[in-house]
Structures are given as structure tokens and as C-alpha cells.
Amino acid sequence: MAETKNMILNMGPQHPSTHGVLRLILELDGETVVKLTPEIGYLHRGVEKLGENLTYHQFIPLTDREDYVAALSNNLAYCMTVEKLLGLEVPPRAMVARVLLTELQRIASHLIWLGTFGLDIGAMSLFFYCMREREQILDIFEACAGARLTINYFAIGGLRHDLPEGFESRVRDFIKIFPERMKNDYERIFQDNKIVRMRTEGVGIISKEDAIDLGLSGPLLRACGVAWDIRKSNPYCGYETYDFDIATGKVGDVFDRYLVRMEEMRQSLKIVQQALDRLPGGAHLADDPKVCLPPKQKVMTEMEALIHHFKIVSEGFEPPVGEVYHSIETPRGELGFYIVSDGSNKPYRLRFRPPSFVNLESLAKMAEGKLIGDLIAIIGALDPVMGEVDR
Amino acid sequence: MSEMVVDKLKKRFFASVLDSYSFRDESTVIINKEDIVAVCGYLKSDPDLSFDFLSDLCGVDYMGREPRFEVVYHLFSIDKHHRIRLKAMVGEGEKISSVVGIWGTADWHEREAFDMYGIIFEGHPNLIRILMPEDWDGHPLRKDYPLKGR
Amino acid sequence: MTEFIIIMLVKMFVIFGAVMLTMTYITLAERKILGYMQIRPGPNRVGPWGLLQPIADGIKLFLKEDIIPDKASKVVFVIAPAMALIPAVMTLAVIPFGPAVTIMGRQVDVYMADVNIGILYIFAVSSIGVYGIVLAGWSSESKYSLLGGLRSSAQMISYELSMGFALVGVIMMSQSLSMVKIIEAQKGVWFIVPQFFGFIIYITAAIAELNRTPFDLPEGESELVAGYFTEYSSMKYAMFMLGEYINIISVSGIVTTLYLGGWSGPILPPLAWFMIKLLAVVFFMIWVRATYPRFRYDQLMTFGWKVLLPASIANILLTPVFMKIFGYL
Predict the structure, then answer these.
(1) Residue C74 Cα, gap to closest chain A Cα (Å)
(2) At the N or C end, where does chain B have fewer CB atoms within 10 A?
(3) What are the residues of chain A with a beta carbon less than 8 Å away from any beta carbon of chain B?
(4) Segment B16-53, tens digit of pLDDT
(5) Would you tell me which CATH number, out of the four given (2.120.10.80, 3.50.50.60, 2.60.40.10, 3.30.460.80), belongs to the domain B2-122?
(6) Peptide bond before residue C214 is cis, with ω within 30 degrees of 0
């Protein structure tokens, strides 16, 4: 018999379904993946290094550009870490608005995931339905912040601006329309499809123990049956006062990940509803003139406010010496910031714990021994955002 | 909660715990770098602590101080919901034992710390650069590495 | 004799031209229909309702730089697209678009030839198309193309069997291999009714044969970039596309002829009926594309060999029983 050799296939960094610039070096035996080596770093921008050279305020826009699919979650994680470092209290209105908006962001992010996952396994229509609903959420963000993708709406101490007029009715419209759309447009066309089931069930299974060992977090870990959600286990922003459930899966395959994310969207909508009902009035930014920018009206009329504004913009503020780690539950999992402060106006060390980076590590474990078609479904279900992986 | 962890750790590894302090309700324990694997193994296996999840592992460069680097471990327990931060000091050119055997996720984290700071993890299965190109010169997150590159 | 040649040449140009025109507008229709199904307008910039879009696409493809990869085996690389296109055009010869009409006092059939083994001819010719794809995949010297070519050869061979078996039912009922005779045999009731299973099997296998969703693995974008034509550009790429869309027309034409009664229908002229039925089949294929995801490679093979093939054989066995019961025999 002739000697056979495995084929090395270089998949990416330019490939339709590697979600950005992920490069996978595949060793193939026919169509079976024998060995998989991820190569990352194509989008490395040295954000951690930049962070060490920017003031605390200046870094916020950079967080948008990490996980660009869920920019608000990144804003929130960073702002909360700095607030923890400062010991700054956030006013209740800002707190509730933050919860509301990050949950909407979670829905928007999961919608992108659902759409692209559909594309990955060849169902193209779903993508457009998902985009339609995401558009509605982005419109809400645009009304708040003027931006749609890199939203940069949260500031240290609260929100950059107060919520816009008509915010409530926009969100209510969305709440009204969304459950129906989910049921009719996503689940009926996608979930009940025989081929979708064939492509997802029993694919990419990872055990509970392996998942924890490899540091998986977020929907991926919950799909394995581990009911860990930072919003429940270490509540922040008052999540303990909201009524919602943790969605978990059973087997930990791609289909479970799909179910978990779908259920998460429903739960998020529930949280949005509750947050909207309790949205209090009052200030949207903490009253700390050394840290928070004064309102523009005051800057124009009061000398003191003008000075504070100038100081914050030009020099920033100086937090106490110390170090904090704070993590939140983003659509992709545990996003943590570790900031070491030496008492100057810039962080001494700013570390970013990206969920996608850690989740991607387990790809080899899930995909080796499977077919290329499975690999694509698994990458799709991992939902990596390369901005966050490479930083 | 985390006081209990620090107390237990101090009792068990009296000689290894160099220092411990708390800031904003977060406990930090500084561990002698020779004992890091033993301490981590204990933290993971002890039923009261059960730190089964390595949230994060990163390096920090304190240039001008001896030893120069710190490796920071953020541990979390999925059952108990508590966190702790471990630190180990590593001098320039010194080695520290890898914790890949305890938490598989440490693999890429340690590669990143090596890539960014040049900290060498002994016993790591595949300690090569991860974010920077293979032939890159220098370690970008070191304080003496210029911001605009070279 | 001269008259015969002239008539044939004219017919050739007319049919070829008409099919090319239909084909270009099927590409537009596909994009438009997909667009409406996906709540977006589809192409609407070039001309009213995007009507000039296919022409713009054609010009673009003509003017693109033609790249032949350095490592490709050049001769095969150049021949392969033609090998995919020519058989597709050849099948058109036996598709009966309409019955004989009288033009300038002469009886002219609206088809090239009524071969008495029409179905066999179609099978023979369309099988050659596989070579174009396999050779394109092999000669590109690209791994994606190679995998795409392999996938598609395996797929086409597997589904060709079920396709052929599905047609046996029709042949049994019409007792002829000639396309025109088959249409005439459907005077009473279209074969889609007595041969319903055969119809389902045939159209499934035909979609697989055409490499369309949910069987578009050879060019499965998310997996193999563009499959066997990853390395092709310009007119060579266009030739694959042409071949693919002409195949869609000919397959729809075959379905129309064999199962939907061909040109027969009331009031409207036969040619109009034929086109309506043909376009309905095309629409069905586009609809399937908007709805279904893609099979996995092994599932595709399992489906072909373990589901479709036994089903088509069962269809052959059941047809005589059916014919006996309903008095066809």
C-alpha cells in the first residue's frame, strides 16, 4: 500500500468562518481533524501597554475596542474596577441604567452570535432576522450615546449623559416585540430544523471537569451543567435584587450552548423589564468633582466646575495606592480587570482577563478527532471575538 | 470569608506565606515562589477552599525593585464563590514552576506572561510566544520597553 | 438538407440565447427572492429593480484579471471550467420546451432533438460535468480546492444513483425514454401524483447534484472558502457559475418534463406553461436555499446511501404494484 501522509491545512487568518483573524493550523486525515493548533495575535494592539500610558478616563474608549460585539459590558467592567479602586459610590439611577443597558447588550451580542452561528452551519436567513432585532437595540444605544458599536457610554462614576428622551418607550417597544420574534423567527426556523439538530447535537462535547480545568466561563460553562453566573455568585450593580434564572445545559454540546444562549436572552429581557420598571430619577453621575466630569452647563457658568473639568481632562485623577480585581459576566463569560495603582494618574498595571482568550484555549480539546464541519460549528458556538483574544 | 482562606493558608504553609494584606475586601497573599505549586495544589484540593477555577494569571513588572517581576494568580471557587489573589516574586532570569498541572487553563496565560515579560515557567509543556510573532525581540510589557516600539 | 441545417442552427441560437437570458435573470431572481425572504431589498442599484445587475456582473467578470496560480497545472486548470460548462449546455438539447409550431409554413419543434433515449442522454452528459469539478479542484494545487473537489465527486456519484433509480419509475409508467413521449404519456394525470415519492427523491438528489443548499458542501463557504473554485477568477470563475445556473435550468426542465406534465396546460400557449412550471421549480430551489442549513459531510453520505438509495429502489419495486392497482397495466 502506498504511504499516506496527513495534510496540513492552514485555516485563517483570512477565512470566512474564523470570526476575524483566528488562524488554525489543522492536521487533517481526510476530513478528520487530527491536531489543531490555534495561532493568535493577529489583532494584537498592545492595549495593556497603552493602558499604562493613559489616564483612567482616557482608557474607557479602548475597552470598547476589545470585545466590540459587547462594548458596553467592557465599559462596565472597566468602570466598576476603577470605581472599586476609588471606593466610589454610583447613584441608583446609573446603577439601574447600567444593568438595563448591559442586558440589552447581552441580547444584542447573543443575536450576533446566533446569526453568525447560523451562517457557519449554512443557514443564511437567520442572520438577517437577528440583525433586524439587533438594529432595534443599537438604535436605543445610538439614542443614548450617539454611537452604535463602540458605545463608550459608561463613565467612571455613572453614565456619561443622562438617558435620552423617549428611552423608556423604545425599550418597551423592544420588550413587546422580542419574545414573539424569538419564538416565530428564530426557534421555528432554526431550532426545529432537522439538519440543525444533526449538525449540533452531540458535537463538541466537553465534560464539566475539563471545562472548569480549562477555565471556560459564561454560556459555554453553563452548557456543561455548571450553574455559575457571576451575576448570581458575586452580584454587582444590584443584580441580587433582580429575579432571573441561570440557564444550564446537560451534555455540553453545541446544541446545549445554543439553548443556554437562547434562554439567557429571555432572562435578560426579564431583567430589562424589571430594570425599566424600577428606573429611579436623580443624578446619573456620582457627585465627586475630583473624578467625575461636571455637566457642560456648569462648566460654562461656574469657575470651579471649569477648573475641575480642566483638571480631570488634562491630568485625570489620582486613586489610592493598591490593587483591585473585578470581574463581571459578559455575554462571553468572566471579564475581569486587574488594576495596580501606584497613586499616580495612570494605572501602573492594567490587566485584562478576556473570556474569549480563555475559551479559545479549549478549542483543541473539543475539536480534535472531529470533522471539519464539526470544527466550524464548534468555533461558531465558542463565539470568540478576536479583538478580545488578541487585545 | 477570604480571611478564613488566608488563615488556613498561613497555618498550613507557615514558611511559604511571605506576607498578606487586604485592600477593598480583596485578600492578597504573597507566596514564596518555590512553593507555588504546593500552595496552589492545596488550595485546589482542600474541600473548604476548593479553588477549582483559575480566573487569571498575569505578570507585573516592578522595574527597579528586586526581585523585579511578580506573577499574580487570581483564584476563584465555583462552589464557594470566594476569591483570592496569590503573588509570587520572580527576579529577572529566574524561573518559577508552572501550574499547568493544576489548572489546564494556565497554559495560555503562562505563555502570555512569558511573551510579555519574559518570565520563564518551568515545566510548561510548550512555552513559546503567543501574541507576538515568534521572532519578536524583547518583551513588550516590560517597563523599559518603549511605548512606540523599537 | 441545407434547410435542415439552417433550421437547426437557428434553433440552436434561439434556444441557447433564450436559456442564457433566462439564466442571467435567474441569478437576479435568486438574489431578489433571497433578499425578500431575508427582509432586505436585494440588488436595486443598477437599473430599475436592479434589472441591469446581471449585465453589470457579467461585465465585471469579463474585465477582471484572470489569475492562474503559479503552482497549478495550467492546462487542466484552463480546461476544467469548460468541462463543467459544456455538458451543462449539452443537456439543453433534449429538453422539450414546447410542441411543434408552424413558422413560415414549416413545422418546427421547439427543442433541438427528440432523442429516443433522451433520459439516458441526459445522464450520460451530466455525469461528465463531475470531471470539470474534480479536475478544477485537483489542478488548483490548493488544499481547499482539493477538498472541495473530492467532496463534490463523492457527492455527485452517490446521488447520481438515486437520481437514476428515481427516474425508473417514470420510465416504467411512460414506457419510453424519449422526453416527448413522456410528456404525451402525462395527458391524463401528471406523474407527480402517481410518482410522488419518485418526485421527492429525484428533486432531493437533483439539488444535491447541483451542489445547492442543503447539499452545498463542495463550495461550503464557511468550511472550504469556495471549494473547488477557490482559486478561479474572472471568466473561468464565471464559467463555473454559468454551468451551475444552466444546470439549474436543465434540471428544472427535466423535473417539469418528467413530473409536471411538461408543456401541457390550458389556455396559455405550451411554451408559457413550460416556463411557468420551470420557474416554479427554480423558485422552490431558491426557497430551500433560504431555509436550510448545510449537511455535514458524513451525514450527506449517510443520507445518500442509507436513505435516498433504498427509498429509490423501494420506489421502483412499488411502481408496478401501483400500476397494477390503478389500471396502468
Answers:
(1) 23
(2) C
(3) 40-41, 44, 46, 48-50, 53, 84-85, 87, 210, 212-215, 226, 228, 233-234, 322-325, 327, 334, 336, 338, 340, 348-349, 351, 353, 357-358, 361, 390-391
(4) 777 888 888 888 888 888 888 888 888 888 887 888 88
(5) 3.30.460.80
(6) yes
